[in-house]
Amino acid sequence: MRARSFSHCGITVSDFNKAVRFYWDVFGCPLVGVSDQPPDRIRSFFGVDATQPTCKTGWIRVPGGAVIEIFEFRPYQPPIETPWNRVGLTHICFNVRNTQKWHDYLVGKGVEIVAMPEQSPNGGQWFFFVKDPDGNLIELTELGAKNDILLRWFGPLGGWLARRGLVRDYREYYEPSATE
């Protein structure tokens, strides 16, 4: 068994409309669906302990096919900072072209910049980090023409080659199960 593709990630936001405007206006990611969850489901599935909880759910389409699923819960719970060195999701990432131009564009939009564009230590892609209105970390990375072509056109072929042992075997970095 293997996964077919990446589908989506979920982010809890403080203000549904503000989050939609941010991802749509700043990154060109449109809202493609909205749903209100029933109170019983919010209490049982999401574990919200409130008399009349609400949860608005939205799906924001990212160019390339993935989705950011956003949740706005009421009653509101303040965010808890997730440090990099703790287990858990730390950021989402968008592939872009020209990180310096993106940096300047985001500064002009008033987006909080966390780190200036820099090249990765291995000399590969350029990247930098920003925050959305709720402080969720977003990486913008420029893979470079070679890596972009390899991922876009040879991604499926690369997966096929890797499954047949025709490219570098990274299993040395983990303990394979008996079935591998």
What is this entry, summarized?
26% of the residues lie in helices and 28% in strands.
End-to-end distance? 11 Å
Number of strands: 8
Oligomer: single chain
Q: Give the percentage of residues in beta strands.
A: 25-35%
Query: How are the strands ordered across the major sheet?
Result: 1-4-3-2
Counting structural domains, the number is 2
Written as H for each helix and E for each strand, in order along the chain, the element string is: EHEHEEEHEEEH
The named CATH superfamily of the largest domain: 2,3-Dihydroxybiphenyl 1,2-Dioxygenase, domain 1
Which CATH first-tier class of the largest domain would you pick? Alpha Beta
CATH fold-level assignment of the largest domain:
2,3-Dihydroxybiphenyl 1,2-Dioxygenase, domain 1
Mean pLDDT score: 84
Major sheet: size, sense and barrel closure?
A: 4 strands, mixed
Query: What characteristic shape results from the CA principal axes?
Result: globular
> Class by helix and strand content?
alpha/beta
Number of helices: 4
Give a written overview of the molecule.
The chain has 180 residues and is α/β, with parallel strands linked by helices. It folds into 2 domains: 1-77, 2,3-Dihydroxybiphenyl 1,2-Dioxygenase, domain 1 (Roll); 89-164, 2,3-Dihydroxybiphenyl 1,2-Dioxygenase, domain 1 (Roll), CATH 3.10.180.10. It is built from 4 helices and 8 strands. It has helices at residues 16-27, 39-44, 99-108, 145-163, and strands spanning 8-12, 31-36, 54-61, 67-74, 92-95, 112-119, 126-131, 137-142. The strands form 2 sheets. It has a 4-stranded mixed sheet with strand order 1-4-3-2. Strands 5-8-7-6 form a 4-stranded mixed sheet, covered by helices on one side. β3 (54-61) and β4 form a beta hairpin. The longest helix is centred in the last third of the chain and has 19 residues, at 145-163. The radius of gyration is 19 Å and the shape is globular. The mean pLDDT is 84.
